[in-house]
């Protein structure tokens, strides 16, 4: 089964993300691997679960936490309740999303153990699912510190669960150590350090090393995107952070993020964010303006 290496970009105003979406029923899914941790809740679907070297049938509701670079996928071939579509809720985060010092505190011992076990994947059953589902549904409608508090509550529920099972075997070597993953991570690291300047296909291909044509096929097969698309994604994400941070106008954000043409920047920004840079900035400023007015009236 093919494995795709994903590089998830977090929203510029969030240290972790949560989303809910219908889960497609189909026999064949591609294995995925990514640096971020993931908590997945599947509802009303049955099929086969692939986590590392673990393969097992599942049915109904499924709750799993996955560590970094652990190959995984769910093949959903039917829905137990034909009147309700299969649903997937996903939380993406890094263990240090609130800072590395948190995990060093004595109160976080169980949390650190949870993250360690997550490297092999952990399946939760019984009352843990009911508790976690309630918190995750609340997280979908909350924002800011209220959502952060719920995230900590969810992690505490998982860390204290007595109805859990580590999935992949202790002998399974994570894809993180594979030669392919090392090549992809090498490219990612190079792009992150050099996206502000012109980057040629030849110089990136030389990192592997491969011919440009071979590299294009390799990168597309392993990441499901082209090198150009990935560079564009990194640049636009950085530009969005600059816009929200303040102190830079749109033109400055354009040139500081690696673009040398404002037209291309505006086009790529809208393709990536669904809004022009100006509309994007206004959208995030609006709540602040409304809150300011309320404070002034009070």
Automatic annotation (TrEMBL):
The keyword Hydrolase does not apply. One of its GO terms (molecular function) is DNA-binding transcription factor activity. Pfam families: HTH_18. Residues 185-283 form the HTH araC/xylS-type domain. SMART domains: HTH_ARAC. The keyword Plastid does not apply. Keywords: DNA-binding, Transcription, Transcription regulation. InterPro entries: Homeodomain-like_sf, HTH_AraC. PANTHER family: ARAC-FAMILY TRANSCRIPTIONAL REGULATOR, TRANSCRIPTIONAL REGULATOR MTLR. This is Transcriptional regulator, AraC family.
